[in-house]
Input
Amino acid sequence: MPPLDELLQGGLPVGQLVELYGPAGSGKTQLLMTIAVRVLADEGRVFWFDTERTLHPDRFKSLCERWSPHASFETMLSRMAIKECDDLLDLARGVEALQALPICGGHCLIVIDSVAAAARCSEDVIHSRLEAGGSNARGSEATVLAERQGLLNRVAVALRGAAWLQRAAVIVSNHVTADFGSDQNDAFKPALGLTWAHAVNAQLMITRTESPLERQIVLTKSSEQYVPSHSVRISSVS
Output
C-alpha cells in the first residue's frame, strides 16, 4: 500500500516485527486483510493467525476481487494458511511450526490478529489453574503476569525465528489501554506492557478521523528512525 510504504520507507521490513495498535473499531483487521491481499496478489504467501475469529471470508473475498480482479480467489487463497488460536501457548506453537516449513521464496507475510486477545485468554487459563490449586489472590496475580510474560517472550522469539528463516515480514495487531501518564484525558497506548513493546521493531497507531471513509496511521516507534509526527491517511474501505 503506497501510504504505508511511504510511512515505513519501503513497506513492511523483512525479518522484523511491526505492531499495529488502535481502539476497537479503528480498522485494524481491515488494514491487515488489505496488506495480506496485496501480498497474495503479488503471488506471495501469507500465514494468518486468527485469535479473535475476525477473518470473515466474505470481506476477504471482496478485497481479493478488488485488488486482483483477474485472479481466481481460490488460487489466491491456496497461498494463504489460516490457523485459529486461542491462547499464547497455542499461538507460540503455531508460529514455531513455521520454522519447520520449506522456505517460501518470494514475498512472505506473517499476521497475528491479535496478540492481546491470546494474552487475555492465557490469563484466564492461568487464573483458573491457580484458583483450582488454592493460590491466594496476591500471589496468583504475580504468577499470572510472570507466566503471561514468559509466553509473550516465547511468541516474540518464535516470530523472529520464523521471520528470519522464511524471509518474511511480520505484522501483529494489539489492543490499547489508557495512558495515565499522559496529559490528555483520552490518551492510550499499546496493551501488554513495556517488555512486549521492546520486542517489536516498529509501532503503528491507527485511529478514526473526522471522515468515516478515512483512517489515520501514525508511526510511533521505529528501530530505523524515530519520526513521532510522521503520519498518513488511508481509505477505510481499502
The longest helix spans residues 137-166. The domain at 2-235 is CATH 3.40.50.300 (Rossmann fold). The chain has a mean pLDDT of 90. DSSP finds eight helices and ten strands in the chain.
